[in-house]
Amino acid sequence: MNVLRFNDMPIIAVAKGMTVAVLTFAVLGTVSALWNNPFFVRMTPTSGFETTALALQAVLVGIYVAIPVRGCAVKLAGAGGIANFLGVACPICNKILMLIFGANALLTYLEPARPYLAAGGVLVTTWAVLLRWNHFRESSL
Q1: For the chain, how far is it from start to end, CA to CA, in angstroms?
Q2: Which of 17, 31, 43, 130 is packed most tightly, with the most Cβ within 10 A?
Q3: pLDDT (tens digit, 9 = 90+) per residue, 73-124?
Q4: How far apart are CA 57 and CA 63, in angstroms?
Q5: Closest residue by Cα to residue 125 from 62, 52, 34
Q6: How many domains does the chain have?
């Protein structure tokens, strides 16, 4: 069984993945106001799962970017990222969703589904990472 080790990846790819992971966590956490910041104010309190879900998503996105492959499951990783962002973000702070659905519908339907959206986003992104890793492993053999 041929399993690639971490040291089989170029150091520049690992550095790029780590940078993307940190930036993803910082930018999305700030935009979704998971911590106090001067740019955004959260209208609904956090439930506690948001920071963990965002950290998992950021690590997965970093790993995805670090795997040196030409295109593979990009749409899948993007869908996972969007689902995770909707899961960790304030449901009524999204002006587009507010315009389309209204605050009452968002608080009634989206708010209870947020943990599942965040978990689903992490699972979909995990699937994209696994597909990309398998493609990398097959092309390296």
Answers
A1: 11
A2: 17
A3: 678 899 999 999 999 998 888 888 889 999 999 999 999 999 999 999 999 9
A4: 10
A5: 62
A6: 1
